[in-house]
Design goal:
Blueprint: H1 2-18, H2 22-39, H3 44-54, H4 60-83, H5 89-95, E1 96-98, H6 102-109, E2 114-119, H7 125-130, E3 139-144, H8 150-161, E4 168-169, H9 173-182, E5 187-192, E6 204-208, E7 211-215, H10 218-226, E8 230-239, E9 242-251, H11 261-276
Parallel strand pairs: 1-9, 2-5, 2-8, 3-4, 3-5
Antiparallel strand pairs: 6-7, 8-9
Helix pairs in contact: 1-8, 2-4
Length: about 300
Protein backbone atom coordinates (compact mmCIF):
# COMPACT_ATOMS: atom_id res chain seq x y z
CA UNK A 1 0.00 0.00 0.00
CA UNK A 2 2.84 2.41 0.83
CA UNK A 3 4.27 1.96 -2.69
CA UNK A 4 0.87 2.77 -4.19
CA UNK A 5 0.63 5.92 -2.10
CA UNK A 6 4.20 6.86 -2.96
CA UNK A 7 3.52 6.41 -6.67
CA UNK A 8 0.28 8.40 -6.47
CA UNK A 9 2.05 11.31 -4.79
CA UNK A 10 4.94 11.21 -7.26
CA UNK A 11 2.54 10.96 -10.21
CA UNK A 12 0.56 14.00 -9.01
CA UNK A 13 3.76 16.00 -8.45
CA UNK A 14 5.05 15.16 -11.94
CA UNK A 15 1.68 15.91 -13.58
CA UNK A 16 1.41 19.29 -11.87
CA UNK A 17 4.85 20.27 -13.12
CA UNK A 18 4.35 18.74 -16.57
CA UNK A 19 1.40 21.01 -17.38
CA UNK A 20 3.72 24.02 -17.16
CA UNK A 21 5.02 25.31 -20.50
CA UNK A 22 8.62 24.40 -21.22
CA UNK A 23 9.76 28.02 -20.89
CA UNK A 24 8.73 27.90 -17.21
CA UNK A 25 10.17 24.44 -16.72
CA UNK A 26 13.49 25.79 -17.98
CA UNK A 27 13.34 28.42 -15.24
CA UNK A 28 13.00 25.52 -12.80
CA UNK A 29 15.90 23.86 -14.60
CA UNK A 30 18.10 26.89 -13.91
CA UNK A 31 17.25 26.62 -10.22
CA UNK A 32 17.85 22.86 -10.28
CA UNK A 33 21.25 23.46 -11.87
CA UNK A 34 22.25 25.68 -8.94
CA UNK A 35 21.00 23.14 -6.40
CA UNK A 36 22.47 20.11 -8.10
CA UNK A 37 25.81 21.56 -9.17
CA UNK A 38 26.60 24.52 -6.95
CA UNK A 39 25.00 23.36 -3.70
CA UNK A 40 24.88 19.54 -3.66
CA UNK A 41 27.70 18.81 -6.12
CA UNK A 42 25.81 15.80 -7.44
CA UNK A 43 28.39 13.22 -8.59
CA UNK A 44 30.79 16.07 -9.18
CA UNK A 45 33.89 14.03 -8.35
CA UNK A 46 32.91 11.34 -10.86
CA UNK A 47 32.13 13.94 -13.53
CA UNK A 48 35.46 15.74 -13.03
CA UNK A 49 37.44 12.50 -13.03
CA UNK A 50 35.75 11.33 -16.25
CA UNK A 51 36.23 14.63 -18.07
CA UNK A 52 39.85 15.01 -17.04
CA UNK A 53 40.63 11.46 -18.16
CA UNK A 54 38.85 11.90 -21.50
CA UNK A 55 40.34 15.33 -22.24
CA UNK A 56 43.83 15.53 -20.69
CA UNK A 57 44.78 18.24 -23.21
CA UNK A 58 42.13 20.69 -21.96
CA UNK A 59 43.00 23.43 -19.48
CA UNK A 60 41.32 23.59 -16.05
CA UNK A 61 39.30 26.57 -17.31
CA UNK A 62 38.06 24.63 -20.35
CA UNK A 63 37.16 21.63 -18.19
CA UNK A 64 35.18 23.81 -15.76
CA UNK A 65 33.23 25.36 -18.63
CA UNK A 66 32.41 21.90 -19.99
CA UNK A 67 31.40 20.84 -16.51
CA UNK A 68 29.02 23.79 -16.11
CA UNK A 69 27.55 23.21 -19.58
CA UNK A 70 26.97 19.56 -18.74
CA UNK A 71 25.12 20.27 -15.48
CA UNK A 72 22.96 22.89 -17.24
CA UNK A 73 22.04 20.27 -19.84
CA UNK A 74 21.52 17.58 -17.20
CA UNK A 75 19.02 19.82 -15.40
CA UNK A 76 17.26 20.41 -18.74
CA UNK A 77 17.11 16.64 -19.32
CA UNK A 78 15.40 16.26 -15.94
CA UNK A 79 12.61 18.78 -16.61
CA UNK A 80 12.22 17.63 -20.21
CA UNK A 81 11.65 14.09 -18.96
CA UNK A 82 9.00 15.37 -16.54
CA UNK A 83 7.35 17.14 -19.50
CA UNK A 84 6.73 13.72 -21.08
CA UNK A 85 3.78 13.37 -18.70
CA UNK A 86 1.87 16.13 -20.53
CA UNK A 87 3.54 16.93 -23.86
CA UNK A 88 1.78 15.97 -27.08
CA UNK A 89 3.31 13.52 -29.53
CA UNK A 90 3.22 16.22 -32.21
CA UNK A 91 5.39 18.50 -30.07
CA UNK A 92 7.79 15.64 -29.32
CA UNK A 93 8.21 15.05 -33.05
CA UNK A 94 8.85 18.76 -33.59
CA UNK A 95 11.40 19.04 -30.79
CA UNK A 96 13.07 15.62 -31.23
CA UNK A 97 13.22 15.52 -35.01
CA UNK A 98 14.33 12.43 -36.91
CA UNK A 99 15.99 13.63 -40.11
CA UNK A 100 15.76 10.39 -42.11
CA UNK A 101 12.99 8.10 -40.77
CA UNK A 102 12.66 6.81 -44.34
CA UNK A 103 15.74 4.65 -43.70
CA UNK A 104 13.78 2.67 -41.11
CA UNK A 105 10.67 2.54 -43.29
CA UNK A 106 12.77 1.27 -46.21
CA UNK A 107 14.28 -1.52 -44.12
CA UNK A 108 10.79 -2.59 -43.04
CA UNK A 109 9.60 -2.53 -46.67
CA UNK A 110 12.54 -4.79 -47.54
CA UNK A 111 11.21 -7.37 -45.09
CA UNK A 112 13.33 -6.57 -42.01
CA UNK A 113 10.54 -6.50 -39.44
CA UNK A 114 12.96 -6.33 -36.49
CA UNK A 115 15.68 -3.64 -36.43
CA UNK A 116 18.22 -2.99 -33.66
CA UNK A 117 18.96 0.71 -33.08
CA UNK A 118 22.03 1.59 -30.98
CA UNK A 119 21.76 4.86 -29.11
CA UNK A 120 23.86 6.51 -26.39
CA UNK A 121 23.24 8.53 -23.24
CA UNK A 122 23.49 11.70 -25.26
CA UNK A 123 21.07 14.60 -25.60
CA UNK A 124 17.65 13.49 -24.45
CA UNK A 125 17.24 9.80 -25.20
CA UNK A 126 13.88 9.70 -23.39
CA UNK A 127 12.25 11.94 -26.01
CA UNK A 128 13.48 9.82 -28.91
CA UNK A 129 12.30 6.52 -27.48
CA UNK A 130 8.89 7.76 -26.33
CA UNK A 131 7.20 8.53 -29.66
CA UNK A 132 5.77 6.20 -32.29
CA UNK A 133 4.56 8.68 -34.88
CA UNK A 134 8.02 9.04 -36.45
CA UNK A 135 7.61 5.98 -38.69
CA UNK A 136 4.96 4.74 -41.07
CA UNK A 137 5.01 1.14 -39.85
CA UNK A 138 7.48 0.30 -37.08
CA UNK A 139 6.68 0.52 -33.36
CA UNK A 140 9.34 1.55 -30.81
CA UNK A 141 10.55 -1.09 -28.34
CA UNK A 142 13.14 0.50 -26.00
CA UNK A 143 15.20 -1.94 -23.93
CA UNK A 144 15.53 -0.85 -20.31
CA UNK A 145 16.99 -1.94 -17.01
CA UNK A 146 14.35 -1.71 -14.24
CA UNK A 147 15.21 0.79 -11.50
CA UNK A 148 15.76 -0.48 -7.97
CA UNK A 149 13.23 2.04 -6.68
CA UNK A 150 9.89 0.51 -7.73
CA UNK A 151 8.01 3.81 -7.44
CA UNK A 152 10.36 5.61 -9.85
CA UNK A 153 10.52 2.53 -12.08
CA UNK A 154 6.73 2.55 -12.45
CA UNK A 155 6.80 6.27 -13.25
CA UNK A 156 9.42 5.87 -15.99
CA UNK A 157 7.50 2.96 -17.53
CA UNK A 158 4.46 5.24 -17.68
CA UNK A 159 6.38 8.17 -19.21
CA UNK A 160 8.09 5.97 -21.80
CA UNK A 161 4.89 4.24 -22.91
CA UNK A 162 2.48 7.21 -23.17
CA UNK A 163 2.59 7.21 -26.96
CA UNK A 164 2.59 3.46 -27.51
CA UNK A 165 6.22 2.46 -27.08
CA UNK A 166 6.56 -0.96 -25.47
CA UNK A 167 9.50 -1.43 -23.11
CA UNK A 168 11.53 -4.64 -23.06
CA UNK A 169 13.32 -5.62 -19.88
CA UNK A 170 17.01 -6.12 -20.58
CA UNK A 171 16.97 -9.69 -19.29
CA UNK A 172 14.16 -10.51 -21.74
CA UNK A 173 15.82 -8.94 -24.79
CA UNK A 174 16.69 -12.09 -26.76
CA UNK A 175 13.42 -13.86 -25.95
CA UNK A 176 11.29 -10.88 -26.97
CA UNK A 177 13.28 -10.19 -30.15
CA UNK A 178 12.86 -13.82 -31.21
CA UNK A 179 9.12 -13.48 -30.65
CA UNK A 180 8.89 -10.16 -32.52
CA UNK A 181 10.79 -11.56 -35.48
CA UNK A 182 8.79 -14.81 -35.51
CA UNK A 183 5.52 -12.85 -35.46
CA UNK A 184 6.90 -10.46 -38.12
CA UNK A 185 6.05 -7.45 -35.98
CA UNK A 186 7.59 -4.24 -37.40
CA UNK A 187 9.75 -3.38 -34.41
CA UNK A 188 12.41 -0.76 -33.81
CA UNK A 189 14.31 -2.15 -30.81
CA UNK A 190 16.33 0.65 -29.18
CA UNK A 191 19.27 -0.01 -26.88
CA UNK A 192 21.53 2.44 -25.02
CA UNK A 193 24.78 0.62 -25.70
CA UNK A 194 27.40 2.95 -24.17
CA UNK A 195 26.97 1.56 -20.66
CA UNK A 196 29.63 -0.31 -18.72
CA UNK A 197 29.16 -4.10 -18.91
CA UNK A 198 28.72 -6.05 -15.71
CA UNK A 199 31.81 -7.68 -14.20
CA UNK A 200 30.81 -11.04 -15.71
CA UNK A 201 30.62 -9.54 -19.22
CA UNK A 202 34.04 -7.89 -19.56
CA UNK A 203 34.78 -9.77 -22.79
CA UNK A 204 35.75 -7.08 -25.27
CA UNK A 205 38.05 -4.12 -24.68
CA UNK A 206 38.81 -1.14 -26.90
CA UNK A 207 39.65 2.55 -26.58
CA UNK A 208 36.76 4.91 -25.93
CA UNK A 209 37.42 8.62 -25.38
CA UNK A 210 41.08 7.77 -24.90
CA UNK A 211 40.38 5.22 -22.16
CA UNK A 212 40.83 1.46 -22.15
CA UNK A 213 37.17 0.50 -22.01
CA UNK A 214 35.08 -2.63 -21.69
CA UNK A 215 32.25 -2.57 -24.21
CA UNK A 216 28.85 -4.24 -24.39
CA UNK A 217 28.93 -7.01 -27.01
CA UNK A 218 25.43 -8.31 -26.37
CA UNK A 219 23.73 -6.10 -28.99
CA UNK A 220 25.95 -7.35 -31.80
CA UNK A 221 25.69 -10.98 -30.63
CA UNK A 222 21.89 -10.75 -30.68
CA UNK A 223 21.88 -9.08 -34.10
CA UNK A 224 24.18 -11.79 -35.48
CA UNK A 225 22.14 -14.58 -33.95
CA UNK A 226 18.87 -13.27 -35.45
CA UNK A 227 20.50 -11.68 -38.54
CA UNK A 228 18.71 -8.36 -38.03
CA UNK A 229 19.92 -4.92 -39.22
CA UNK A 230 21.94 -2.69 -36.89
CA UNK A 231 21.39 1.06 -37.07
CA UNK A 232 23.26 3.81 -35.21
CA UNK A 233 21.32 6.88 -34.03
CA UNK A 234 23.48 10.01 -34.18
CA UNK A 235 21.98 12.64 -31.86
CA UNK A 236 22.63 16.37 -31.91
CA UNK A 237 21.30 19.08 -29.59
CA UNK A 238 20.48 22.04 -31.82
CA UNK A 239 19.45 24.39 -29.03
CA UNK A 240 17.64 24.23 -25.72
CA UNK A 241 14.71 21.85 -26.08
CA UNK A 242 15.47 20.88 -29.69
CA UNK A 243 17.26 17.74 -30.83
CA UNK A 244 17.79 15.82 -34.05
CA UNK A 245 18.75 12.23 -34.74
CA UNK A 246 20.14 10.84 -37.97
CA UNK A 247 20.07 7.10 -38.59
CA UNK A 248 23.16 5.38 -39.99
CA UNK A 249 22.85 1.81 -41.23
CA UNK A 250 25.80 -0.22 -39.93
CA UNK A 251 24.71 -3.44 -41.59
CA UNK A 252 21.62 -5.25 -42.84
CA UNK A 253 23.42 -8.61 -42.73
CA UNK A 254 25.47 -8.83 -39.47
CA UNK A 255 26.22 -12.55 -39.93
CA UNK A 256 28.41 -11.73 -42.93
CA UNK A 257 30.91 -9.56 -41.02
CA UNK A 258 33.70 -10.44 -38.54
CA UNK A 259 32.82 -10.68 -34.84
CA UNK A 260 33.02 -7.34 -32.95
CA UNK A 261 33.17 -5.39 -36.22
CA UNK A 262 29.91 -3.56 -35.60
CA UNK A 263 30.59 -3.16 -31.88
CA UNK A 264 33.75 -1.29 -32.85
CA UNK A 265 31.80 0.72 -35.45
CA UNK A 266 29.32 1.79 -32.80
CA UNK A 267 32.04 2.89 -30.37
CA UNK A 268 33.78 5.02 -33.01
CA UNK A 269 30.50 6.67 -34.05
CA UNK A 270 29.49 7.24 -30.42
CA UNK A 271 32.87 8.89 -29.88
CA UNK A 272 32.27 11.23 -32.81
CA UNK A 273 28.86 12.19 -31.45
CA UNK A 274 30.30 13.01 -28.02
CA UNK A 275 33.36 14.88 -29.30
CA UNK A 276 31.16 17.15 -31.43
CA UNK A 277 29.82 18.62 -28.17
CA UNK A 278 30.94 16.71 -25.05
CA UNK A 279 28.67 18.58 -22.61
CA UNK A 280 25.59 16.63 -23.71
CA UNK A 281 26.85 13.16 -22.77
CA UNK A 282 26.05 11.62 -19.38
CA UNK A 283 29.31 12.20 -17.48
CA UNK A 284 27.95 11.30 -14.04
CA UNK A 285 28.10 7.53 -14.49
CA UNK A 286 31.22 5.48 -13.64
CA UNK A 287 32.03 4.52 -17.21
CA UNK A 288 35.60 3.37 -16.50
CA UNK A 289 35.24 1.61 -13.16
CA UNK A 290 36.76 -1.67 -14.45
CA UNK A 291 40.27 -2.46 -15.68
CA UNK A 292 41.29 -5.41 -17.90
CA UNK A 293 42.61 -7.26 -14.85
CA UNK A 294 39.06 -7.22 -13.42
CA UNK A 295 37.85 -9.53 -16.21
CA UNK A 296 36.87 -12.98 -14.94
Amino acid sequence: MSKKIGYALLYIWVKLHAILPLRLLYVLSDVLYLLMYRLAGYRLKVTRRNMKAAFPEKTPKELRQMERDFYHHFADYFVETIKLAHISEEEIQRRACMTNPQLIDRLVEQGHTCILVLLGHYGNWEWFTAGNGFFQQARMYPIYRPLNNKVFDRLFVYLRSRFGSIGIRRRDTLRDLVRLKREKTPALVVLLADQTPGRADLHYWTTFLGQNSAVLTGPERIARKLNIPIVYADVQKRKRGYYTVEFNLLTATPQETPIHHHTEQYIRLMEQTILRNPAYWLWTHKRWKYKPEDAL
